[in-house]
Amino acid sequence: NAGVMQNPRHLVRRRGQEARLRCSPMKGHSHVYWYRQLPEEGLKFMVYLQKENIIDESGMPKERFSAEFPKEGPSILRIQQVVRGDSAAYFCASSPIGVGEQYFGPGTRLTVT
Amino acid sequence: QQQVKQSPQSLIVQKGGISIINCAYENTAFDYFPWYQQFPGKGPALLIAIRPDVSEKKEGRFTISFNKSAKQFSLHIMDSQPGDSATYFCAASESGGSEKLVFGKGTKLTVNP
């Protein structure tokens, strides 16, 4: 059973460009969470999605950031007009029923130059 | 406001020793407390988790101790090995909501051979 998959693993963007991060949950999991990790920091919750629904986006910056989890295909975290402060590791986690255990992917390390 | 406080920030232990990492939380509605292990460049891996209905849970060399009245929980690693050298994160979540995890800032554990 494949784990949570994220791609790309590394992404370099210039200031002002768009970044698209993809996450495929574990098979059978329909709940996806996105977290951001700054250097030497813990993980911070961004958004929680189920198929075609955003359940909780309380941790998402109000501007430039959006997320989706379509009926078919991976969940996408989109960052428009990236700035240097967006440089971080972005992790996706999935859960089978949205209760308890969350399993993390390997992350996407975004560098904004 | 940091809802989960983790200590120490770093810990050095000799091979065979006991590693102890502590966490304290503020939100009494938290009812799920996992620990994650993260190696450099990797995603967090779920290690062990506990719910408030028990005071202790053991899996192999890893034990969680939970003190509901003090709002504290800790991870004990018995017979620590160099391969346990990693960053450990405690977390907490509240059922009935989005189940988002609130993380501590992490403890970097080094086990010397």
List the helices and strands and how they pair.
The complex is a heterodimer of chains A (113) and B (113).
Chain A: E1 5-7, E2 10-13, E3 19-24, E4 31-37, E5 43-50, E6 53-56, E7 65-68, E8 75-79, E9 88-95, E10 103-104, E11 108-112
Parallel strand pairs in A: 2-11
Antiparallel strand pairs in A: 1-3, 3-8, 4-5, 4-9, 5-6, 7-8, 9-10, 9-11
Chain B: E1 4-7, E2 10-14, E3 19-25, E4 33-38, E5 45-50, E6 56-59, E7 62-67, E8 72-77, E9 86-92, E10 102-103, E11 107-112
Parallel strand pairs in B: 2-11
Antiparallel strand pairs in B: 1-3, 3-8, 4-5, 4-9, 6-7, 7-8, 9-10, 9-11
Average pLDDT of chain A works out at 93
Range of helix content of chain B: under 10%
From the alpha-carbon coordinates, what is the Rg of chain A to the nearest angstrom? 13 Å
Low-confidence stretches of chain B: none
Q: What is the string of SSEs of chain A from the N terminus onward?
A: EEEEEEEEEEE
**Structural class, from secondary structure content of chain A?**
mainly beta
Shape of chain B: globular
Range of strand content of chain A? over 45%
Largest sheet of chain B, in brief, is: 6 strands, mixed
DSSP strand tally of chain A: 11
What is the radius of gyration of chain B computed over CA atoms, rounded to a whole number of angstroms?
14 Å
Largest contact between protein chains? A-B, 29 and 23 residues
The low-confidence parts of chain A are none
Query: How many separate helices of chain A?
Result: 0
Helix content of chain A: under 10%
Helix count, DSSP H or I runs of 4 or more residues of chain B: 0
Alpha-carbon distance between the two ends of chain B: 38 Å
